[in-house]
Task: structure prediction
Amino acid sequence: MDILFPMSISKILSKISLPFLLILISTSQVFGQEDPLYSRKARFHPVVATNGMVATENKYATEAGLQVLKEGGNAVDAAVTIGFTLAVTFPRAGNLGGGGFMVAYLADTNEVIAIDYREKSPLQATRDMFLDKAGNVDKQKSRNSIFSAGVPGTVAGLTMALEKYGTISLQRALQPAIELAQKGFPVDQELSKSLIRAKKQMQKSASSMEIFYKENGEPYQEGELLTQKDLAWSLQQISKNGPNAFYEGAVAMKIDSFMKQEGGLITKEDMQKYQAVLREPVQGKYRGYDIYSMPPPSSGGVHLIQMLNILELFPLSSLGQNTAKTIHILAESMKYAYADRSKHLGDPDFSPVPVSELTSEKYAKSIKDLIKMEKSRPSSEILPGNMNIEEGPNTTHFSVIDNDGNAVSNTYTLNFSYGSKITVPGTGILLNNEMDDFSAKPGVPNAYGLVGGKLNSIEPEKRMLSSMSPTIVMKDGKPYLITGSPGGSRIITTVLQIIVNVIDFDMNIAEATNAVRVHHQWLPDVLMVERGLSGDTIKILTDMGYRVEVGSTIGVAESIMKKGEYMYGASDPRRPGGLTAGY
Ligand code: DON
Result:
């Protein structure tokens, strides 16, 4: 047989004419095995690399992070470098004066960790601090005033990550940020445009105007150099004296004296007491993949897993991507999750959060049984309310993977674009307006239309509830997908759809990112869809009882996938300044 087999092949070949043989060879190259990098079926293509990859919303940050990986730093080193760099080159969301969450897979110890560096409310904060005399919520005060700021967590979070899991010095991690702040960098279109939009609110802060606008009051234009001397000073203080410079030393003093001068609430004691917290990630399973995401005080991970548990009970892949049936199942799952969010989620250091109940398969089954396939269930049958989303996505997410398989998924924010728009004089540091993420009054929606109750009411030293959902999906014990997004309430549903697009609909990460997204948050009872969904589908959904609104974009995902030896990444085209790069 050994001899017969090749002989029979050569016999067959001798009977085939040469032109036919050439056609056979060329078609097998084109239609044969799929090219692992560029599938014929893909409409969008990811960036591909084999040694390390970084996906952020800003090219300076991506370049800084990638350089650290190339020098042999690990994913945490790169992530911390990116975090500090974004504070300079992407000031609308990158920050020292805000907070966030990091989820990381550490190959050495084979564990996934979560760092909570969410802002805390100041010691002097009170439950009703944002209510006016008539008992109504004063939105200006909660969103655009000195009182909007929580005690910042970013410096504590990034330095904790570096100290515990990094390999490079803090000086090295800060070096690109310091250089870019000191020498300046050419402003890109994204930054220039966002400064035009922010100008009206920025005008209340002389320091913000001095930094981000020219003497004639015009924002820096694309290509012009933006230098931030005060921010360089703050970063240098941290480089020299570590996080203490920010929480107790020279930077803390400046924050304290500014607060005193303006009658704000953050004191030296608040700064001194702030600590980032290492938490257990929230964990779930979806069609054989392991999901790790951010636990409370983020609502993101809990509701992501809750919704995936419900979706797993439906045959999504056979129903089809973005068909009316699939969108219906997504929307119904979203409504139940967001209804639970308003009641059960808050800072776990203040009240217990029923994480295991909300993420249990039993609970998902009970919700599945309430979903009717033919009809939308009105949100009023679950609970009443209304919404008013005012802001675009102004948080920022980045993903990193290195050669050893370490991975970081990080989302951080000032809340709105440029936070409260107030810069602490002499520091270049913009203060967040995260206090608006608390429920200022039960049932009254915040800027993202989210309602809440007692668990998310303002209390001294409490962390306000978040939707930020940095997530790592694992396959066979290794990172498979690293993803996350800004977008306020729409963060959780954006991350959900990235995961479903990849797992259920076999999309590459560029396709999964580009695909049209939908969002329902229970209240208001509106199904938001992005442009690009077919009119026929919208008609079917409307007939099923949905109030469909085709509106602004949903989320800005920055994701990386690892398949075999290849890393695939994609920056979201919804915010054009992003860059994914690998080597
Ligand atoms: O923590 C949160 O959930 C919000 N402060 C995030 C804000 C955000 O994503 C801004 N973009 N809309």
In short: The first helix runs from residue 4 to 15. The chain has 21 helices and 21 strands.
